[in-house]
Amino acid sequence: MEEKNIILKINNCSISYGNGVDAVKNVSLSLREREIISIVGESGSGKTTLIRAIMGLLPENGRITGGEIIFDGKTLSKDNEEAFNSLRGKEMTMIFQDAGESIDPIRKIGYSFKEALKSSQKMKKSLIEKLIDKMLDGVRLPDKKRILSSYPFELSGGMKQRVGIAMATSVNPRLLLADEPTSALDVTIQAQIVKLLKQLGKEKNCAIIMVTHNMGIASYISDKIGVMKDGEMVEFGERDRVIYHPQSQYTKELLNSVIRFGDSR
Ligand SMILES: Nc1ncnc2c1ncn2[C@@H]1O[C@H](COP(=O)(O)OP(=O)(O)OP(=O)(O)O)[C@@H](O)[C@H]1O
């Protein structure tokens, strides 16, 4: 297999929780620089567990029980879960479904943004301020002064998600993990945010893995699509191949349900 430009490789990875749930079973995939992969699948199929494991953010009771995750040549396996700590927040960042989860609710946005940058890179205060300004422009947020002096609860869901994306991409990560980044938003805002993510990924040379329930979003944003069911990756391949020539029965069902939904309008 061509190994060039591969930034993340997951080999036969299995992840279990303390309650005996085998959430991810023997999953493999590889991601190239600047590539965008969507992981789709029904609720409980293991999507969040997989990307949390990549980020080194599994809950206390979750464990990688087999296989390995290799990021930029460094291996995270069941024996060395510490290995990714130094990468988290710098080389790899994450956007959550609700940016409220990642932005401190009791601090003003400006303060949280500065802290996030200070802890990830040594920069002069004036440069940090310039960078924040540029990043807010990048996610098309007007009225920057007001936003920076607001608490998260004072912003709309779409604004918070834009701030979350600005924070997550301001450190120039090589990999951005996005867990249902738009599902808490209404449909028009979802489309704007997904478009923005796609643009930012390409502009900043950042690879993206996005978890979504929405096959339409996956089809729009992705170079490759992975489909999960009951912890297994039942399909993984180039976007067009998966959309137009799905191999697994489950992918066919997912695609049919999208078409039926569209037809009924
Ligand atoms: N902290 C946990 N402790 C025990 N079991 C868990 C935990 N988190 C998830 N699970 C279980 O692991 C399986 C996979 O869950 P996961 O959240 O990864 O699915 P998902 O595909 O992301 O679902 P959704 O689309 O609903 O977010 C489920 O059976 C779930 O109940």
Can you walk me through this structure?
The protein folds into two domains: about 1-90 and about 175-265, P-loop containing nucleotide triphosphate hydrolases (Rossmann fold), CATH 3.40.50; about 100-170, no CATH class. The mean pLDDT is about 85. It is about 35% helix and about 25% strand. By secondary structure, it is an alpha/beta fold. The protein is built from nine helices and ten strands. The structure holds adenosine-5'-triphosphate. The site of adenosine-5'-triphosphate (ATP) has 15 residues, from helix 1. Adenosine-5'-triphosphate binds next to helix 1. Pfam families: ABC_tran (PF00005). One of its GO terms (cellular component) is plasma membrane. It comes from Acetitomaculum ruminis DSM 5522.
Question: Could you name the key traits of this structure?
Answer:
265 residues, six-stranded mixed beta sheet, four-stranded antiparallel beta sheet, 9 helices, binds adenosine-5'-triphosphate, cell membrane, transport, AAA+_ATPase
Give the full name of the CATH homologous superfamily of the largest domain: P-loop containing nucleotide triphosphate hydrolases
Helix content: 25-40%
Q: What general outline do the C-alpha atoms trace?
A: globular
Q: What is the top-level CATH class of the largest domain?
A: Alpha Beta
Number of domains: 2
